[in-house]
Design brief:
Blueprint: E1 2-7, E2 10-13, E3 18-26, E4 31-39, E5 46-52, E6 57-59, E7 67-72, E8 77-82, E9 91-101, E10 104-109, E11 113-118
Parallel strand pairs: 2-11
Antiparallel strand pairs: 1-3, 3-8, 4-5, 4-9, 5-6, 7-8, 9-10, 9-11
C-alpha cells in the first residue's frame, strides 16, 4: 500500500502562484509515475501533469507553460508549481502514484487538496 499526503492548496488571486506537494509513504518502491489530477464541480477528473521516475514530464494543454512538475525520488515527493493562476484552475487537486506490483500497475490517490482562484 502507498499513502499519498498532499499539501499546498489554498485560496489565491488571479495571476498568483501556488506550489502543491505530495509525499508518498508506505510501500513506495517501484513507483514509476506520479502526477496531479484535478476535478472541478460538475466536471470529470482530468490530468494536470505527470512525471516518470526517469523525469519525463507530461502536461495538460491548459496548464502548459504555466506549471512545472518536479520530483524528488529520494523523498518520494512530487511537486506542482503553478503560476499565472486563473479562476478556471479552481478545483480539487489529487495526487496520483502508479506502482508496479508484480507486473500490474496499481493506481493510488491522495485525499485531494482544494485550490481556489478568485477573480
Amino acid at each position: 500500500q502507498v499513502q499519498l499526503v498532499e499539501s499546498g492548496g489554498g485560496l489565491v488571486q488571479r495571476g498568483g502562484s501556488l506550489r502543491l506537494s505530495c509525499a508518498a509513504s508506505g510501500s513506495s518502491s517501484n513507483i514509476v509515475l506520479m502526477g496531479w489530477y484535478r476535478q472541478a464541480p460538475g466536471k470529470q477528473r482530468e490530468l494536470v501533469a505527470s512525471i516518470t521516475s526517469g523525469g519525463r514530464t507530461n502536461y495538460a494543454d491548459s496548464v502548459k507553460g504555466r506549471s512545472t512538475i518536479s520530483r524528488d525520488n529520494s523523498k518520494n515527493t512530487v511537486y506542482l508549481q503553478m503560476n499565472s493562476l486563473k479562476p478556471e484552475d479552481t478545483a480539487v487537486y489529487y495526487c496520483n502514484a502508479v506502482r508496479i506490483e508484480g507486473v500490474t500497475p496499481v493506481n493510488y490517490w491522495g485525499q485531494g487538496t482544494q485550490v481556489t482562484v478568485s477573480s
